[in-house]
Amino acid sequence: MSTELLFRDDAYLKSATARVLGVHERGIELDRTIFYPLGGGQPGDTGVLLRQSGERIVIADTRKGETPGSVVHFPVPEASRPEPGEILTLELDWERRYALMRLHTALHLLSCVVVAPVSGGNIAPDRARLDFDIDMNLLDAERITHETNALIARGVATETLWITDAELDAHPELVKTMSVQPPRGVGRVRLLKIPGIDLQPCGGTHVGNIAEIGAIRVTRIRNEGKRNKRVEIALQP
User: Fold this and answer.
1) Neighbours of 77 (CB within 10 A)
2) Which run of H or of E encompasses 100?
3) Are 158 and 207 within 8 A, CB to CB?
């Protein structure tokens, strides 16, 4: 059962309606969703599914299903379960999602300031990090903070592009990440373009203009192994 990913076309959707395709031990599958499933270092979304009776089903996590293209919404243990075919209203935990969008987009800029292969990454609502295959002596927190904020201040609108798998194969330099490969299997790959700054495959959610990120700061730089020098960032309050 495939799920239509509404956030792919509009990451700012805070609510929508959907029909229940299936309910099982793993969770609830819908015909469409605004909830991003865990992947690419970005955590799964949380929020609420509202039944027509007004009953609230709190969603604690969202993950990709076992069937290609499906998304599973994980309710808290005490929540009720809807019936297949039931129409629900989806309400996203928007404050959490928007923080993830801002930080995720900031990591794209960070990867342009620290010019090195990316060996890992992770995003949380209050912080994010990238790991680089680089000499530790080349990482300076003050410089990275200044240069990343200088890019943010340019206020460039982001764009979503699609290319074929074959086009990506012809341009392997687009892939910066060593540990996470772009999602394939549907014949095309989604790119995030920040004109004049960055272009790389990414299936996550991002802000419409990098100015929305606001100022960031590098909170820590540490050695996580021979090929993993970690740069952690947070949004300025």
Assistant:
1) 6
2) helix 94-113
3) yes
Residue 122 confidence (pLDDT) above 70: yes
Architecture of domain 4-92: Beta Barrel (2.40)
pLDDT at 179: 56
Whether the pTM exceeds 0.90: the reply is: yes
Beta bridge pairs of residue 27: 24
Residue ranges per structural domain of the chain: 4-92, 97-235
Return the pLDDT at 99: 98
Helix axes 141-152, 94-113, angle to 10 degrees: 110
The alpha helices in 46-93, defined as continuous H runs, are none
In angstroms, rounded to a whole number, what is the distance separating the alpha carbons of residues 143 and 75? 43
* Cα 73–chain centre separation: 16
Report the CATH number of the 97-235 domain.
Answer: 3.30.980.10
What gap in Å lies between CA 78 and CA 58, rounded to an integer?
9
Question: When comparing pLDDT for 171 and 87, which is higher?
Answer: 87
CA atoms in the 13 A half-sphere facing the CB of 130: 26
Task: Read off the amino acid at residue 42.
Answer: Q
Calculate what percentage of the chain has a pLDDT beyond 70: 95
Give the Cβ contact number of residue 233 at 10 Å.
Answer: 23
Report the half-sphere exposure of 50 (CA within 13 A, side-chain side). Answer: 10
Is there a contact between 61 and 76 (Cβ–Cβ < 8 Å)?
Answer: no
